[in-house]
Amino acid sequence: MLPLLPLLPLLPLLPLLPLLPLLPLPPAKRPFSCVPLDLIFLYNQGKSTESYSCGKLSIRDKLISHFSNANEDSMQSNLVIFPNAGAAKKSKQTEEGTITKYDRAEEQFIELLAMEDLDHQLDVKPEIAIEFEQALSRSIRAAYKNDRSDEKLHPQGDGVFGHGEELPIPNAQCPMPQAAGRLSLSTHKGMEFPAAFDEQAHRFLQRILYRINRLKLFWYDDLRHYTNERSLYLSLCRDQIEAAWQQWELAQMDVAALQQLDVKQALIERASADLDPLLSESSRYIREEMTESGYRHLLAIGSFDGLVEGSRLCYVLGGAANEMQCTLVRVLLEEYGNGRLSRKHSTFFAQMLAEFGMNTEPEGYFDLVPWEVLACANHNFLTTDRKRYFLRYCGALTYFEVAGPAAYKNYLAAAQRLGLSEAAMGYWELHIREDERHGRWMLDDVALPLAERYPNDAWELVLGYDQEKLMGDRAGSAVVRSVREAKQST
Ligand SMILES: [Fe+2]
Ligand SMILES: [Fe+2]
Known about the structure:
17 helices, disordered N terminus, 2 strands, binds fe (ii) ion, Heme Oxygenase, Chain A, two-stranded antiparallel sheet
């Protein structure tokens, strides 16, 4: 009888037991809220996935699988209508359904961004993020893990950066995932997906990532817009997208081959080839066929970067002083018109827009920006934010400055053929002159000296260079495709 003694005061409540199921239950916890706070904290501090392993799973694995598993079940029932082999003719309807759901999820995310003290709100009311979290989980699988390789693409795991790196770097021999989803049908467990389905997942993910990343810049708008800039929740969302996306991007690079290169020679050869490349089919279209409305469409998409250009370079300027650092500062100063607004490169872009009576506000044409262009910006945010990727970023900027003039010559040729005013093409002319110089500075005074300073890691310069080229070409093709489509729809 003794063990039951403490329960004696509860005896009068026994008749109420049958009513227990009718009592209100606490709200369902959102996935993150079930994860111990210290795990989230360690994860967010960017600790090694290896060093903080719990049992067989790392903290990253636990968080990510927790997040995805929690969403999986409910998603099947109430979010996305999955296309399948037997429903090919319904693909358009499915695609529209998916677009609507991704759009709705993005709207929900925008509301979350605007909430005062988002992390606390989510603790109290986890259901306010459920639709977004389901779409996030679904889109990551649709965009990056929809082929045979799935998430076990690189089981060896260590990656070329070795232990201590969060981003999984795939083995170069791994099969390429569905990088060309927009061009062909992709396969998932024997079923065919319409290419556009993955397009929407990519678009959703890059837009969400950009909405988080853009909080690193100041937009001279309402200060309350930055209320969640250090939100733990937003950091986790960003990390989750980046981890899957970066693995997917890196699987498209032959990393093992890059590691065997004579880096200085490789950079010199690449830069000389990219100064004056052969005209691609897209370049020819721009030069010879693009109409004036196509040119305006091009400006609208280009304004996404053109009106804030150079912004991310700021993140790598602080720190120890040397010739390399001073060269990077010199590039930034020129991009920023040496502190005079009238000479700032973004001002030249705004003048081109104004010449056509177009919107000169940054992000004014955000909805027109293809995901491939957003990916370039997001990749840039990542490589400038992480000092571990300093070499990759410098390699990327070297390509960007070296290859700029050739691309701008195409746009200039189009503007001249169309008989446009000087102001409507001033940005291109300016860059053909200045970027030639910037390219030389970046190669001779930043990339090559870095290769000497970091002989064991120097190949990362080439990785950054090549990746910028690959992603830039992909974005360029997407822009031309968008210009062509806009022409067809007018
Ligand atoms: Fe510039
Ligand atoms: Fe430049």
